[in-house]
Amino acid sequence: MKDAEKLLNENEVAFPPAPSERSEAGLDDIPCGARFQDPEVAAAIFMEIATDIVAYS
After folding, report:
1. What's the pLDDT at 19?
2. Residues 42, 29: Cα–Cα separation, whole Å
3. Ramachandran region of residue 12, left (φ > 0), alpha (ψ -120 to 50) or beta?
4. CA quadruple 7, 8, 12, 16: dihedral, nearest 10
5. Residue 15 in contact with residue 5, Cβ under 8 Å?
6. Which helix (H) or strand (E) holds 8?
7. What is the rounded distance in angstroms from the CA atom of residue 50 to the CA atom of residue 57?
């Protein structure tokens, strides 16, 4: 990656900004009320799929 940045700088090409680093978080660091449980995620996905099926029928 450093070589690519050097090459772009030498040729006066703007290098796109890099996204910020993701912070490391353990499961214990996330409060229970802030976590999404698997059944909640599955229900949300199912509702989206069902809505799309009804909308495009």
Report:
1. 78
2. 23
3. left
4. -160
5. yes
6. helix 2-10
7. 11
* Total residue count of the chain as it appears in this document: 57
Token pair 């069902």 in the structure block, residue: 50
Amino acid at site 38: D
**Two structure tokens written together for 39:** 């059944």
pLDDT in tens, 11-32: 888 777 777 888 888 888 888 8
pTM above 0.70, yes or no: no
The residue written with tokens 């912070």 in the block is: 23
Cα separation, 45 vs 38, in Å, equals 11
